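Quick bug: Phytoene synthase output formatted oddly.
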Amino acid sequence: MDHVALFTETSRACSKLITKRYSTSFTLGIRTLDRRFHLPVYSVYGFVRWADEIVDTFHEHDKAALFQDFKRQTYEALDLRISLNPVLHAFQDVVHQYGIDREFIDAFLYSMEMDLDDRSYNQSLYEKYIYGSAEVVGLMCLRIFCEGDEAQFARLRESARRLGSAFQKINFLRDIRSDYQERGRVYFPGVQYERFTDEVKQTIEADIRADFEAGYAGIVQLPRAARMGVYLAYVYYLKLFHKIRQLPAQRILGERVRVPNNTKLLLLLGSYFRYQLARV
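Here's what came back:
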C-alpha cells in the first residue's frame, strides 16, 4: 500500500471511530450494510457529525468562527482532493469516488449554519432546514448505495428524502425540550413551546407517518447490499416514533424518549430475520 492510500485508509478509520463513539444506532445500521459500504458511509457520518458538533456543542468558543473555518476547509478539501484534517480527507475522497453532488454539501452546510442563530422557523425555513440537515444526508448515502446507477438514484431519490425527513422530525419531537431550553429553538413552524398540546403533537405525527410510508416504499427497492442497513434505521426510528406517540404532549416536554441499547439489539435481530426471509 502506498502512503497516500494509507493516509486515506487511516482517515476513514478516524471517521469510523467517530461514528462508534457518537452513535450506537448508526454504527449498528452500518454493520448490516455490505462491507464495501462501511467505510464510505462512516466517512459521510464523520463529516456531518463534526459539523453538527461545532454548532451544537462548543458554547464557550466562537462557534461562528469555528464553523466558517470548517466550511472553508471543506471546500478546500473538495477542490484540492486532500486535507490534513482526516475527517475532511475521508469525506472528500468519498465525494469524488461516488459522485456526491456539491449541491447536497452546500445545502447541508447552510442548514448547519442556520443553527448558529436561535430562531423560530416558518414553513419555508423549516423545509429548507430539514432538506439540508437530513434529506441530503440520505441522498449522499444513496449515491454510495447506487454506485453510479443514475436511473436507480433518480427512482429512489424522493423516497430517500422522505425517509430523512421522517427521521429528522422525530428527532425534533424527541429533543423539543432541550432544543428550546438549551438553544432557544423551536423547529416546528407556528408551534410555541409553551402551547405544545396533544392536538399540535398529533398534527406533527400525521405528517411523520406520511413521510414514513413514502420512505418505506423506497427501502424495498434499494440494492440488496444496502437494504438491511437502511431498514434497520427505519425500524429503530419507527420504534422511537411509537414510544413518542404513546405519550401525552406534556410528557414529551418533560423527558427525552430513548430506545435502550438492548432493544436496539433486538431490533437488529428482528431486522436480520426479516431480511433473510426476504420480507423487506
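Actually, after a second look the formatting is fine. DSSP finds 13 helices and no strands in the chain. Closing.
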